[in-house]
Specification:
With 324 residues, this protein is of the alpha/beta class. It is built from nine helices and 16 strands. The strands form four sheets. Strands 10, 11, 12, 13, 14, 15 and 16 form a seven-stranded mixed beta sheet that branches. A hairpin with a 2-residue loop joins strand 14 (220-227) and strand 15. The chain binds zinc ion. Zinc ion (ZN) binds next to helix 7.
Length: 324
């Protein structure tokens, strides 16, 4: 009994989901019954599905509150006893990253698993590179917690400086980049050109004389400010208007969502790209969709047990991206 009291105490009262303690969790928008204030009561049926297809995952090994289950042919587990808030949940299934989470207040009963195999060719290494490997100057090379903008402010305002605003081709590129990232995020976060006081601001500017741009011979750099692993504002500095007219604009917007670099030079988030892709690839899109289903602070491979604690600790930092 004591163990449960401790587990309950460790779960912060707020901040488990982007919508706050009492709101529906953004981990999943499934409409099945949420956990009660006690947790999952006896008789609750839990579903385990692919985060890519929504199809049930049979044969998943699930350990909840120390009790073992195997999901049935419909990807379901029927709880015979209470699994209280704060209880650990471990999920292992072929084709998916090992998931470690907790029973949380407001959590829905469907668990969407992160694919490690996919027709898009997304696998564990790719997910790590794009979502958890840092592209920052300060990076140590270790996997870092996932960060992204909050779904509480699901709009991003792109604010170009006078040089960009006066260049028709740069503005066309920026508008189409905004449409593409909005589409890739399925409208759950929308990017628009123009000031919007209630949106997350991203300032875009051309600074050929910028010290860092010059000294490191960069095409562009993106700097983001994060609070508790939530990206709250960014700035994108282009070396020239020509760079802002190119696919680099969309690449930099990808960084403002929290994406790092893809190992694939044909993709938008690749470095030293071979071609000039106009759209995110299917696997970039899949990774973005999974990021929206996870809390900021999620750890590789797929562990958000510590996410609320990470979110509760003050953490303001800058992310700088280099493009030699
Ligand atoms: Zn980059």
């Amino acid at each position: 009994m004591k163990r449960w009291l401790l587990a309950l105490w460790l779960v912060p009262l707020g901040g488990c989901g982007d919508s706050g303690p009492a709101g529906p969790s953004t981990v999943s928008r499934d409409l099945s019954a949420p956990a009660t204030s006690f947790g999952f009561v006896a008789g609750t049926s839990l579903s385990f599905v692919s985060g890519e297809t929504g199809q049930p995952v049979p044969g998943a090994r699930v350990v909840i509150a120390g009790r073992d289950f195997i999901s049935d042919g419909a990807g379901r587990v029927l709880l015979s006893e209470l699994a209280p808030n704060g209880a650990t949940v471990d999920i292992q299934a072929t084709g998916f990253l090992d998931r470690k989470t907790l029973v949380r207040r407001g959590e829905v009963t469907t668990f969407e698993l992160w694919p490690s195999e996919s027709p898009t060719r997304m696998d564990a290494n790719y997910s790590r590179a794009l979502v958890y490997d840092s592209a920052t100057l300060e990076s140590t090379g270790a996997a870092e917690p996932m960060d992204r903008p909050s779904l509480d402010t699901p709009r991003v305002a792109l604010i170009p400086d006078g040089v960009l605003a006066g260049d028709q081709r740069a503005m066309v590129a920026l508008r189409s980049a905004a449409l593409e990232i909005t589409d890739a995020l399925r409208g759950e976060i929308t990017y628009n050109v123009g000031d919007d006081p209630s949106a997350m601001p991203v300032a875009l500017m051309v600074e050929p004389e910028n010290t860092q741009i010059v000294s490191e011979n960069l095409r562009a750099l993106t700097r983001c400010w994060r609070t508790r692993l939530v990206i709250t504002r960014c700035e994108i500095i282009f070396r020239s208007v020509e760079v802002a007219r190119s696919d680099t604009a969309l690449h930099e917007l990808g960084h403002t969502f929290g994406l790092n670099h893809s190992p694939d030079r044909r993709e938008i988030m690749g470095v030293r790209r071979l071609a000039a892709p106009e759209r995110f690839s299917p696997r970039e899109r899949l990774a973005m969709a999974m990021m929206l289903k996870r809390l900021p602070g999620n750890l590789f491979p797929d562990n958000d047990r510590q996410a609320p604690a990470l979110r509760a600790s003050p953490n303001v930092s800058t992310v700088v991206c280099r493009h030699p």
